[in-house]
Amino acid sequence: MILMDNFNNLEYSSALESSSEAQAWLAEQNTHFGHFINGSWLHNETADIMPVTNPANTEQLATIELADASVVDAAVAAAQKALPAWQALGGMGRAKVLYALARSLQKHTRLFAVLETLDNGKPIRESRDADVPLAVRHFYHHAGWAKIQAEEFADYQPVGVVGQIIPWNFPLLMLAWKIAPALAMGNTLVIKPAEQTPLTAMLFAHLCVQAGVPAGVVNIINGAGQAGALLAAHEGVNKVAFTGSTPVGKAIRQATAGQGKKLSLELGGKSAFIVFEDADLDAAVEGIVDAIWFNQGEVCCAGSRLLVQASVEQRLIAKLKERMQNLSYGNPLDKSVDIGALVSQEQYQRVDSMVTSGLETGGELYQTCEANISANYYPPSLITDVETSHPLVQEEIFGPVLVAISFRTQSEAVSLANNSRFGLACSIWSENINRALDVAPKIKSGVVWINTHNQFDAACGFGGVKESGFGREGGREGLYEYLKPAGLKAQKPLSKIKERSARSLSDNIDHTLKFYIGGKQVRPDSGHSQPVYSAKGGVVDWVGSGNRKDIRNAVSAAVKASAWSGSAGHTRAQILYFMAENLALRESEFITKLQTMTGHSAKQAKAEFTASIERLFTYAAWADKYDGNVHNVPYRGVTMALPEAKGILAIVTPEQSPLVSSISLIAAALAMGNRIVLVANERFANLILDLVQVLETSDMPAGVVNIVTGSRQDLATQLAGHAEVDGIWCWADAETIKQVEYTSAENLKTTWCHDDNDRDWLSDKQGEGKEFLRQAIEVKNIWTPYGD
Ligand code: NDP
What we know:
- The chain contains 28 helices and 35 strands.
- The strands form nine sheets. Strands 14-15-16-13-12-18-19-35-29-28 form a ten-stranded mixed beta sheet, with helices on both faces.
């Protein structure tokens, strides 16, 4: 008995990792850091200083200088200066540098891991076995992309200078996710680590020198949120890549509106962890440990919402509570510790106060150990007995706190999982692969894990939808974030209509074109119409003046047409071909109208008409051929990258080549399964509404294409702010684009904005192709491990 008692009560003794090498390195740097700019260290004795502390014992590790505007200017200028030579180095040259970075990082694994743990408070087991190896893999993987860039991305060019802002939860890994793809594709950069956790970035700066990164290619500035804001808004920055909270992501979207920058945002989440009754419950419990207690739950894709089928709820919760008793928390340098310190006192207070105030609304809290406030150890926590609308079920806590609710049916599980403003990740636990693969496409998130959680790899894109942001990091899809199409040639704007007369051009019966909403021709809510003029200035037609209610009706018609997004590519192709057929029947009518409206010759109008028919054929062809990928991820399983329709796309059409441009955009969006609310530009609104008769005769289901006319700027802005619109493509003037991008921050929809005259729509290279298809989809990565 004594033997058994002793056995059952065995305690792990501590196994402390030594921090002496990391402390010695910090001492060598005089425990003080300025900024790494143009390959050397910039210091300013009068700069504001901030301490960097070890969150597990609040000891000061170092101090950093905080960047002001002059530091940000210097860093951006260094990146601009280094850009031409870095691009001229070519793919092989850049591959060698990235390979050297991977090698050096690997050689200093232990130092990086310990420094990360000291700085962030995460267990050494995780920094050693997850953060650092994943960062190393990222550099190796992207060294490869640099080498094959010229062949694989022949139609693209680097964006230029990139501004990158990263958070404190995975300081080195986020740095790798940002820096490796940017460098591989020939960009230079300025990166700002979080003020709480700058140390591994400082060590990485030393590595850049060792690995032969040319001066100015990588610049690292220290600073608080203000420095991030200065960097994001800097006019010398061509692209901003941000990971952090949703409110700051929204602020960056607003601050960069109208600046013509590319933007990717990797924001918060409240990811569902769905356990069906046919799951392996023991495996699910271990999965929960990885999902919510990995990195103290300070993970954007943490499985923080447990959805469990009612029939197994009690059993799962009982097993989970038992497992929680065996979770060890304490000194993060101890190799036997599962949960370390939260990153700061501030974060501790944030988690604690969210939980305390949340529990006032109801819910039962289960914890197995006491908090240790002075060391920022927040105990692993489970909250049950809550409704789906409970604040702790809806808001991101960003700590080791799991909230559990139950469901009865599969469809209820899907709707609960999607009942969130976030859409980052989800895991599905079931031993029935048919069920899991049926549910995965129905979940609105960028990543789905089946019988696993928190899997990442450089070969696989990561990122979200809805308020979890947009853009992907990793894999081929992540590289497009650092590229832009090459070879676009801006066109001369159409000549202005000189003199408008109120006189109608024809003696025919008055012709007022209505909107097209839900498959019907509909009068404007306001009852107002506006004239559309020929190139010479006579009134050709009248079109409706749309308002907020017309947009609302058009969007709800598109919502109802959701079956289109689930239809087969073959079906969509048939309808696009049918549109081409029916448009071809109206050749003379459209050519005459094009001539009247644009003032172009018969030959030019014919060329535009022919290109329009060809575009319909192009996208009918692609509808069943733009496939996904199976990523080569180093694990036993399959990771599928599936292209999915964005959902409801708002399309604001340009003045340039009005027929072929509109048809190109409509056809690309439809081919990928989107429903459309289209705002026709004012000058050619009648021409676009003439397409209604083509749509009506082509078996297009009601609500898939909806067309509203009126003030382009007003209607585009309404659509940009509409919560049910998933993305907006906008060709317009600078002011409209600025408003669209600014307003889109409300629900963080994706935007694809261009000047009216940015390209030659008649050229196949500029007016069609995979870039349009990419913009019409979101990639969902579904991880399916196999084996028992
Ligand atoms: P923030 O979003 O504030 O910080 C992320 C990064 O952005 C940091 O480098 C920060 O600098 C910088 N930053 C802050 N304000 C601005 C600004 N206006 N413009 C540009 N850059 C800015 O996250 P917090 O550190 O404040 O954490 C708050 C909450 O955010 C967490 O509790 C969690 O919910 C969420 N979060 C989500 C993450 C994710 O991966 N999705 C990661 C981190 C946090 P500095 O740190 O110096 O202020």
